[in-house]
Amino acid sequence: MIDSLVIIPTYNEIENIESIIRVVFKLEKEFHVLIVDDNSPDGTAAKVKTLQKEFSGKLFIEVRKEKAGLGTAYIHGFRWAIEKKYDYIFEMDADFSHTPADLIRLYNACVQGADVAVGSRYVKGVNVVNWPLYRVLLSYGASFYVKFFTGMRVHDPTAGFMCYKRNVLEAIDLSAVHFVGYAFQIEMKFRAHLRKYKIVEVPIVFTDRVLGKSKMNSSIVREAIFGVLKMKWMSLFRKHNFKG
Ligand SMILES: Nc1nc2c(ncn2[C@@H]2O[C@H](COP(=O)(O)OP(=O)(O)OP(=O)(O)O)[C@@H](O)[C@H]2O)c(=O)[nH]1
Ligand SMILES: [Mg+2]
Question: 228 with 199: CB under 8 angstroms?
Answer without folding.
Answer: no
